[in-house]
Write a structure and sequence with these properties.
With 302 residues, the chain is of the alpha+beta class. The chain contains 13 helices and 12 strands. Helix 6 packs antiparallel against helix 7 and helix 7 packs across helix 10. It is elongated and about 75 Å long.
Length: 302
C-alpha cells in the first residue's frame, strides 16, 4: 500500500507512523508499506519481491521487473546473490536512473520479452536469463540458465535468438560462454556449480545424469556425472537432495546409508570409482579439482 492509499482510508501520517512503530505495518521504502506479518512470513527472496512491487507502484514511467529481481518470480534457486537493489527495465527505452535501492535499466523490450506473472509485469524467462548474464559472473549465469532449461521455461534456440539481438549490449560478451556451458540435464544448483567447477578447473567434461545399466541392459541407476571412459562417476551430496530422497518414516541417516549401499552396488556392477562432492567443496575449487583429478588419473603424479 502506498501512503496516498492509506490516507484515502482515513489515516494520517501520525497514524501511519504509529502502525509502523507498533509492528502492524512494515515500511518497504519511502511512501510504501505492507502488513508486517506478511513481511515476516517471507524469506529474503519473498521480501525482495515485496520491495520490488513497491518500486513498481512508485515508478514514474512504465517498467518491467527484470534481471536479478525477476529470478524470484520465476522460482529460480539463488545462492550468494545480493538482493539489495530492485532491477527494473523501462518500457519507453529512455535512459534509466539509479535511486536508493532501485536500478532502472535501459534496454529494448521486444514482443514476448515481458509477461504477466504473479500479478506484475516481469521479463520472460529467456530475457531474464540473458539479462542476468550481463550483470552476474559466469558461474551464476550457468546455474540460472541451466535451471530454466531444466524446467523447460526456455530453450537453447530462444536463448540463441535473444543473444543475437543483444550481442552489442554492455555485458553481453559472457553470454556465449554461459550458453555453451549451461546444461538442462543438471537437476540442482549443486550439480550446476559442479559442472562449472569441472570446466573452470580444466578437468575433462563429464556426462550429466548418466544412466547405469545392468547386465540385462535395464537402467539400474542414474548418477549426477560420469566419465565412462575413465571408469569414474561423481555424486553431489546436498541437503536438498537428501530431503528429496527421504521416504515416509525415514531419517536423514537412513538416506545416507541407502545412498552408500547404492554407491557400492554401482561400483560392484561397473567396477568404477566414485567421487562425492558436498556444498562446502565448491568454495575450494582448486583443492576439490585436485582431489577429482587424483581419482580420474590415479597413475599420474600430482
Amino acid at each position: 500500500m502506498l501512503r496516498k492509499e492509506l490516507l484515502g482510508e482515513g489515516l494520517d501520517d501520525r497514524a501511519i507512523a504509529r502502525l509502523v512503530a507498533d509492528g502492524t505495518l512494515h515500511r518497504l521504502r519511502y511512501g510504501a508499506y505492507v502488513d508486517a506479518s506478511s513481511w515476516k512470513a517471507c524469506d529474503d527472496v519473498g521480501q525482495h519481491g515485496l520491495v520490488a512491487r513497491a518500486a513498481i507502484k512508485r515508478a514514474r514511467s512504465a517498467v518491467v521487473l527484470s534481471h536479478v529481481s525477476a529470478l524470484g518470480e520465476w522460482d529460480v534457486p539463488m545462492w550468494d546473490t545480493t538482493l539489495d537493489s530492485v532491477h527494473l527495465t523501462r518500457v519507453d527505452q529512455r535512459a534509466g536512473r539509479r535511486e536508493a535501492g532501485v536500478l532502472q535499466h535501459l534496454g529494448e523490450l521486444r514482443e514476448g520479452d515481458a509477461v504477466d506473472l504473479n500479478g506484475i509485469q516481469v521479463t520472460s524467462a529467456t530475457r531474464t536469463a540473458l539479462d542476468c548474464i550481463t550483470v552476474m559472473d559466469v558461474e551464476h549465469g550457468v546455474t540460472i540458465v541451466s535451471d530454466l532449461l531444466h524446467r523447460r521455461l526456455t530453450t537453447a534456440e530462444r536463448l540463441a535468438e535473444g543473444r543475437e539481438f543483444m550481442e552489442r549490449w554492455p555485458g553481453s560478451l559472457a553470454q556465449g560462454l554461459v550458453l555453451r556451458l549451461a546444461d538442462g540435464r543438471c537437476e540442482s544448483v549443486g550439480e550446476r556449480r559442479s559442472l562449472y567447477l569441472i570446466f573452470r578447473q580444466g578437468l575433462p567434461m563429464a556426462e550429466p545424469q548418466y544412466e547405469i545399466r545392468d547386465r540385462s541392459g535395464q537402467v539400474f541407476a542414474r548418477v549426477d556425472f560420469a566419465w565412462p571412459e575413465l571408469g569414474v562417476f561423481l555424486e553431489f551430496d546436498g541437503k536438498i537432495k537428501y530431503q528429496k530422497l527421504l521416504k515416509d518414516g525415514e531419517s536423514p541417516s537412513d538416506v545416507v546409508i541407502r545412498e552408500k549401499k547404492r554407491e557400492e552396488a554401482i561400483c560392484r556392477l561397473t567396477g568404477w570409482r566414485c567421487i562425492r562432492v558436498v556444498w562446502a567443496d565448491l568454495y575450494y575449487p582448486e583443492r576439490t579439482a585436485a582431489a577429482i583429478r587424483a581419482v580420474l588419473f590415479p597413475d599420474v603424479a600430482v
